Amino acid sequence: MKRSWIYPVDTDKYDVINSFKDLKEVDWEILNKMECGDIVYIYLGNDNKKIMIKTKVKNINVTKSDGIDDSAYVLESETENLSENTVYTRLKLLDLFSEEEANKLSYNLLLKNGLNGSIRSGLILNNNPELKSYIEDIEKNIIKQRIDNLNNGQIFSNEELMSVFKCANASGMRRAHKTNTLCIISDHTKSLYEDRWIEDVFHYTGMGQVGNQDLNYGQNITLSESNTNGVEVHLFEVFKKNEYIYEGKVELVDTPYQEEQLDAENNLRTVWVFPLKQVNRCEEIRIPKDVLDNKEKQREKMAKKLNNEQLRKKTENIKGKPGTRTTTTKVYERNADVAEYAKRVAKGICQLCEQPAPFKNKAGEDYLETHHIVWLSEGGEDTIYNTVALCPNCHKKMHVLKLKEDVEFLKEKIL
Most CB within 10 Å of its CB: which of 23, 85, 94, 350? Predict the structure, then answer.
């Protein structure tokens, strides 16, 4: 049976907080006979007198030559004369409690909840059920409080997400029994699932990458029963690698439905889609427009892989409302005088195809659009020497194809 321990450290001699914060794993000469998988709570002595770190025994009998160098954190060494045969126990960081959190695990509170005497050496918590239960209950409350205090729009790394929710490091649906949560992740950097917002409802594609999805498979059943099984569902969206944007706690607001999507092998299949809404609706998170444009291009590529029959089958049952996003974009303030000058020079004739403007605007003027030969986004200047007037068709052509011969032709036009 795996055991739980309290182990003291002298903070005047060793900077234990920063060693675990920086290294994540630390080798200690622990005299107690611990085993791999044991839980070790680190108790800070001296002026602190509280448990501030939770670790797990990763390895035992680590030799000095194979050890992790933590000499930078040794404040007063007592180990200079250790022989090369000294063995260490490797502890892996599981959690680092804040000062406020650790106050609930202070020496005085530990005394009131089962601790007998001082903590001068390793204590086995399994021998003290009352104290063990108190520490574990406090730890659960700390974790729950952290989750309750999250803010919509907060950005996490994958490691931070795992640390807060105590979930696995992969998968789009991560069930964490310790926190009784299900983290669902919509990764827009990947093109497999067609998740989207329609007004204030997020339509989330279920689990299963190949073949038809099963509502009773994996975490699909957890999500489908989340309104009654007591599991909290938390939504994250990813637009950049290792940036998980927290969208808050969500709940199922309608019956899951099926639709056609491509699987990981580019075969059309049936998936389950879960309509979800934020429990506490907040201002919609804005994303860069180029991110949404890239996602749309990926969708267009996937659509081109379908034959006519697959495309018809996939689209015939699509709901009428499109997905919506609020985006941010960089806008250049163009000089109106430069634009007007370019149009007057053109005299109603497109400067690329050299054909008359296709129509007149409501004011009866020839309709042409101004275009910067060297795009402003690429460092081009907003001057009459970089601006031409084009018909809508040629303007779109320049942005889609940007042919070298067309660029050179337009440059010659304004010389």
Answer: 350
